Amino acid sequence: MKTLDHTYQMLYSELAQRSLDAQFSSEFSLEGRFISMESRGRRYWYFDTAAEDGGKHRRYVGPVDDLEITRRVEHFKDLKADFRARRKIVSTLIREAYLPRPVQAAGDIVEALAWAGFFRLRGVLIGTVAFQCYGPLLGVRLPNAILQTGDADFAQFHSISVAVGDSIPPVLDVLKEVDPTFREIPHSADGRHVTQFAARSGYKVEFLTPNTGSSDHDGQPAAMPALGGASAQPLRFLDFLIYQPVRVVLLHGGGIPILVPAPERYAIHKLIVSARRRVDGDGMAKSGKDRLQAATLMDILFELRQGEILADAYMQAWERGPAWRQALTDGMAGLDAATRDRLKTELGRSIRQIVSDPVDYGLA
Fold it and tell me: Is the pLDDT reported for residue 282 higher than 60?
């Protein structure tokens, strides 16, 4: 495990706070600018952003002599200056600390959904794009071999989507702002619902939600009131993954504050799904990546002396019933012998530290 220099860890912490402050404060795209124009002897504020045809899109803001509006314009200048400073921090963390950044498409998509309010409405980024964020969060460098992906996955609890009483703008409109070639992919079980979107490049965006009900819901899309017209694909085990997510910063642009699964839950979830992917069309490739991500995170957490947190997550999953225990057992069995023995030994030691018997959790 290669740890980050303390200086870079402090820089990341500063970026996290400043990015979150900016997200709460700004109501306008930082890519645009305010201008004042005179009309009939009075000056007015407008906001210009770049249009797709190379021109400008202009929005009316209000009169310059409205002190509250002008105060907001001045505050925006401070935000924009801070954005440039944050971009320098992001660049430093990527170039000097060798931290990963997402591919351009993934970064732009996450940023667009962040500004649309997805994370404000307690949505969670999952999958490999989320995995990239654990390096700076834990103060380590992750292996490059397990950081690449061709899609972005987003999840939200159905109960939250119903309860928040709010919604992001239409998802397709948000995605088309990033890439006009994005299109809806009607769900195979019910074409009235859309859980996936794809661009001409092949990049896909999918929305998921936990399936905690009966098997009757398997394969059936779920309507999600907060997702701007998108539905979500229900998946088993997902409720464990996205419970109590953590806030991180995606190293893109000026830093994007987002929610991702807690690293210990991500590791255990990947161990579980690695055994179940074998039935998928490309299951073997994804299964190997799942196992590698799970083992990498588990090793890091042990080295950081966070084994008890990991063990607690493992025990919670084990105690959920026979299907969960079988998935965990199969996931462990899929690891190479040396990795499996090492992780089982460390898990057993951590379980003993919290006064439990590893034998009760399949770790004899």
Answer: no
